[in-house]
Write a structure and sequence with these properties.
The complex is a heterodimer of chains A (about 280) and B (about 400). Chain A is an all-alpha fold. Chain A contains 13 helices and no strands. Chain B has a six-stranded mixed beta sheet with strand order 5-6-7-3-8-9, sandwiched between helices. In chain B, strands 10-11-12-15-18 form a five-stranded antiparallel beta sheet, with no helix packed on it. In chain B, strands 14-13-16-17 form a four-stranded antiparallel beta sheet. The chains are: A mainly alpha (about 280), B alpha+beta (about 400).
C-alpha cells in the first residue's frame, strides 16, 4: 500500500501546465490528421442523402432550383443596378459565396457539439470537426458552381477575362469561413446560448452583406470600416467584378477584408487551442 | 518527449479537477452561482485525481481497480489524451489504441462498411491499412452478411462487435481497455479473449479498467488501485486485488435488520475445524442467530464470495422462524476453496417471494491451505463449485 496521507490538497504551482500546447503545434497536428477532415466531411455528405430517392443528385438539384427561383421569380421584383448583367447571374454570384460562408458557420460551428460521442472517446485534434464542416460547405459550393455554369449557358453571358483572379478570392473567403467556424464551434461549447442566436445572426448577415444590393450603396465614408468588419462585403463585390464586370477588385476594400480575415483566423486559432483543453470536461 | 522505447507509459504527478455540478438553466440560478463564486472562489471545483504517479514498462499488463467514481475512467481518458490533466503530464511512447464503449460514435445513417472506414481513420489507421485489414475485421465481428446495412438497423451487440473488432486490429503499442470485455455472446467473448492474448503476446502494453475482478486477475500482472482520486496501491495484481476486496467488504459487515423489523440477524459466525482457522477441504460451520417478531416461513440462502456480490457457491434450506430467537447452523463437510480471504453473504425470502433480509454480506473469514493452480493468461476463472451440506435446526440458542 502507498501512504497517501502526504498528498497535498492542491498541486504545487510548478506542476501546472507542465505540458502546455502551443497554437503552432496545434496547426501541425491538424496537418497530420488532414485525412480525418476528409473522412468526416465524406461521412456527413453521405449521411445526408441516405434513404432518399434522388440520393446524391439532391446536392445538384437544390442549387439548380435556386437558380430557377432567382431567374424566373425574384428577377421580376428586384430593382438592383446589375451593370447590364442578367439578374440571375448577378445575384447568384453574390449568393453562392455567402451560402458557403453561412453553411460553414452553421454546420462547422455545430460540429463539436454534434460529434460529442466521438471527441470524448477518441483522441484527434479537435480542429478537424469545424474544418470538416467548412469542407462540406465547400463541396456544396463546388456543386453549386455547376448550377451557375448552367445559368451562364442559358443566359448566353460570357464570363470576363479576369475570372482567373477568382482563386485568390476563394482563398480569402475560405480563411474567413475557417476562422468563423473555429471560433463559433469552440465558444458554443461554453456558451450554449449561441446555438439559438447564430441562425438569427446569419439571417441578419444575409441582409447586412451586399448580396441583393451592391457595395456602392454603403456610404463611401464608412465603406472601409465596413469592409474590415464584414469581409464578405468586399469579397462579393470582387467576385462580381472579376467574373461578371471584367474589372479588377477594389484592392483597398478587398485588402481590408483580407487583413480582417487573417486577424480573425489568428484569433480563432489561439482561442481554439486555449479553450479546447477543457471541452471534454464540460461537453 | 522521453527517449524511452515504444510501449512505455509515464504518468507524472497527474492532477485533475472538475467543476462542481451545474445549476438549472435559468438566468437567476446562474447569477446566484456567480455571486456565490465571487464570495468563495475555491468551492468551484472538486478534485477527481490527485498526484497520480506511475510508470508502465513495455509489454506490462496493468489492471486499474477501484469503486465507482474513484477516478478510473477519468485517468483512462487522460491516458487516451481525450482529457487534459490540470497539472502534471502523461507521456506515452508509440501508437495508442483504446477499446472503449464505441457505439455512441458510430453514425446510424451509414453502413457498417462506411463506419469501419470512418472509425479506423479516427483511431489512426491509414486508408490503406483499413483496406488491408477490412476482411479480418468483418470476419472477426461476424458481420459479413450485414456489413452493407445501415448502422441503425444493427442490434446493439452487432454495433459493439464491430467497434471492438476495429479497435482490436489497430496493432497499437499501448492498448487501453475500459470495461468492454463483456461484449456480445459467449462465442464472441471467447474470440475477444483469444485476441487479447494475441495482443499481449505481440508485446503490447495493456491497461485494463474493469469491475470484473476475475478478468482483471486473469489478464493483468500488475494492479493499480485508485481510491477517491488517490493511487493507494501499486503492486502485483493478486496483492492489490486481495487488499481491494478486503476493503470493499470491511465497509459492509454489520448486523442487518429487515426493513419492517420482522427479522433481525443478531450474529453470524464462521467456525473452522475444532474452532480454529478454516482450512481448504476441511469442515466449515456457519452459525446464524436470528430473532423474529412473528412467524416467518421462507428460505435461507448463504453464499461465499471473493468479496463481490457474485458468490462462488450457495447453499440454501427451508426456514421456519417462530416468534423469538432461532439459531441456524450449516455444516459444510469440505470447503472446495483455495487459500484466501472470503466473505459470506446471506439472504432470507418469505414464501410469498418477499425479501425478508436482502442479499448482503454478513461476515468474512480467512481460509488457510493451498493456492489454486495458475490459469492460462487471459482465461477468466469463474470457480464453479459443488458443495455437500448438512443442515440442522434448533429452537434454543
Amino acid at each position: 500500500m502507498i501512504d497517501v496521507g502526504l498528498v497535498a490538497t492542491e498541486p504545487p504551482k510548478s506542476l501546472r501546465r507542465q505540458s502546455q500546447t502551443s497554437a503552432l503545434s496545434a496547426v501541425v497536428e491538424v496537418a497530420r490528421h488532414r485525412d480525418l477532415v476528409w473522412a468526416l466531411a465524406r461521412r456527413d455528405f453521405a449521411a445526408r442523402y441516405k434513404q432518399t430517392v434522388l440520393g446524391v443528385t439532391w446536392a445538384l438539384v437544390i442549387p439548380l432550383l435556386t437558380v430557377v427561383v432567382f431567374g424566373v421569380f425574384v428577377q421580376r421584383f428586384a430593382r438592383a443596378d446589375t451593370h447590364g448583367v442578367p439578374y440571375v447571374l448577378w445575384s447568384y454570384v453574390g449568393l453562392l459565396p455567402w451560402t458557403f460562408f453561412s453553411n460553414s458557420v452553421s454546420t462547422g460551428g455545430m460540429n463539436l457539439l454534434t460529434n460529442q460521442p466521438l471527441l470524448n472517446k477518441i483522441y484527434s485534434p479537435r480542429e478537424i470537426y469545424p474544418l470538416a464542416g467548412v469542407l462540406l460547405a465547400g463541396v456544396d459550393a463546388l456543386i453549386s458552381v455547376i448550377a451557375m455554369v448552367v445559368a451562364f449557358v442559358i443566359t448566353g453571358f460570357v464570363p470576363s477575362g479576369l475570372i482567373w483572379l477568382t482563386p485568390l478570392l476563394v482563398l480569402i473567403n475560405a480563411v474567413f469561413a475557417v476562422a468563423a467556424a473555429l471560433l463559433v464551434s469552440i465558444v458554443i461549447v461554453y456558451v450554449r446560448d449561441l446555438r439559438n442566436i447564430i441562425p438569427v445572426i446569419l439571417q441578419l448577415g444575409l441582409f447586412a452583406t451586399p448580396i441583393f444590393y451592391s457595395l456602392d450603396q454603403i456610404a463611401s465614408s464608412s465603406r472601409l470600416v465596413y469592409c474590415f468588419c464584414n469581409p464578405m462585403g468586399p469579397l462579393i463585390d470582387s467576385y462580381r467584378r472579376v467574373i461578371l464586370f471584367g474589372d479588377y477588385p477594389q484592392w483597398g476594400y478587398l485588402g481590408a477584408g483580407a487583413f480582417s480575415s487573417l486577424v480573425w483566423l489568428a484569433v480563432a486559432v489561439v482561442v481554439f487551442s486555449r479553450l479546447e483543453r477543457g471541452i471534454v470536461d464540460i461537453i | 518527449m522521453s527517449t524511452s522505447s515504444n510501449g512505455t507509459v509515464v504518468v507524472d504527478r497527474v492532477w485533475k479537477r472538475f467543476r462542481k455540478d451545474r445549476t438549472r438553466p435559468f438566468l437567476g440560478d446562474q447569477l446566484r452561482a456567480v455571486s456565490r463564486r465571487l464570495a468563495d472562489r475555491e468551492s468551484k471545483h472538486r478534485w477527481v485525481l490527485r498526484d497520480i504517479d506511475f510508470t508502465i514498462d513495455p509489454g506490462e499488463s496493468v489492471g486499474i481497480v477501484g469503486s465507482n467514481g474513484a477516478g478510473k475512467s477519468t485517468l483512462l481518458k487522460i491516458l487516451t489524451k481525450v482529457m487534459y490533466p490540470y497539472a502534471g503530464s502523461v507521456q506515452i511512447a508509440g501508437r495508442v489504441g483504446a477499446i472503449i464503449e464505441l457505439r455512441g460514435g458510430m453514425h446510424p445513417e451509414l453502413t457498417g462498411r462506411e463506419n469501419t472506414f470512418m472509425y479506423g481513420a479516427l483511431l489512426g489507421l491509414k486508408r490503406s491499412e483499413i483496406i488491408e485489414r477490412f476482411d479480418t475485421i468483418v470476419d472477426f465481428a461476424d458481420l459479413s452478411q450485414a456489413i452493407d446495412r445501415q448502422m441503425k438497423y444493427y442490434s446493439s451487440g452487432m454495433q459493439m462487435r464491430l467497434g471492438f473488432a476495429i479497435a482490436a486490429f489497430l496493432r497499437p503499442d499501448v492498448l487501453l481497455v475500459d470495461e468492454v470485455l463483456a461484449v456480445g455472446d459467449a462465442w464472441f467473448q471467447e474470440r475477444c479473449l483469444d485476441r487479447m492474448r494475441e495482443v499481449l503476446q505481440e508485446g503490447t502494453t495493456l491497461v485494463l479498467v474493469s469491475h470484473d475482478l476475475a478478468s482483471v486477475e486473469a489478464t493483468c500482472t500488475r494492479g493499480l488501485w485508485i481510491k477517491e482520486g488517490l493511487l493507494v496501491d501499486d503492486a502485483p495484481i493478486r496483492d492489490v486485488l486481495s487488499s481491494y476486496r478486503q476493503s470493499v467488504e470491511a465497509n459492509r459487515n454489520r448486523p442487518y435488520e429487515s426493513p419492517d423489523s420482522v427479522v433481525t440477524l443478531t450474529s453470524f459466525k464462521v467456525i473452522g475445524a475444532d474452532a480454529g482457522i478454516p482450512l481448504s477441504h476441511g469442515p466449515l460451520e456457519f452459525v446464524a442467530d436470528l430473532s423474529a417478531a412473528q412467524e416467518v416461513r421462507g428460505r435461507l440462502h448463504v453464499g461465499v464470495s471473493e468479496g463481490s456480490a457474485a458468490p462462488v457457491f450457495l447453499v440454501s434450506t427451508a426456514l421456519t422462524l417462530d416468534p423469538g430467537r432461532t439459531r441456524m447452523r450449516c455444516r459444510l463437510d469440505a470447503v472446495p476453496l483455495p487459500r484466501g480471504h472470503y466473505s459470506v453473504w446471506l439472504y432470507i425470502e418469505s414464501h410469498d417471494d418477499l425479501d425478508v433480509i436482502p442479499w448482503h454480506p454478513v461476515a468474512s473469514f480467512i481460509l488457510a491451505g493451498s493456492d489454486l493452480d495458475p490459469a492460462p493468461r487471459a482465461v477468466v476463472r469463474l470457480s464453479p463449485v459443488h458443495v455437500r451440506a448438512t443442515w440442522q435446526r434448533s429452537d434454543t440458542v
